[in-house]
Amino acid sequence: MSETVPVERKDVVAAAERIAGSVLKTPLIETMIRGHRLWLKCECLQTGGAFKLRGATNRLLLLSPEERAWGVVAFSSGNHAQGVAIAANRLGIAATIVMPSDAPRIKIDATRAQGAEIVFFDRAHDSREAIAARIAGESGATVVPSFDDPHVVAGQGSVGLEIAEQLGETPRRIVIPTGGGGLASGIALACGQAEIVCVEPEGWDDMGRSLEAGEIIPVGSNPPPTLCDALQTPRVSPITFAILRERDALALAVTEAEVREAMRFAWREHGLTVEPGGSVALAALLAGKIEMVEGTVAVVSGGNVDPELHVRIIGGEN
Question: How are beta strands 36-42 and 28-33 bridged, if at all?
Answer without folding.
Answer: antiparallel
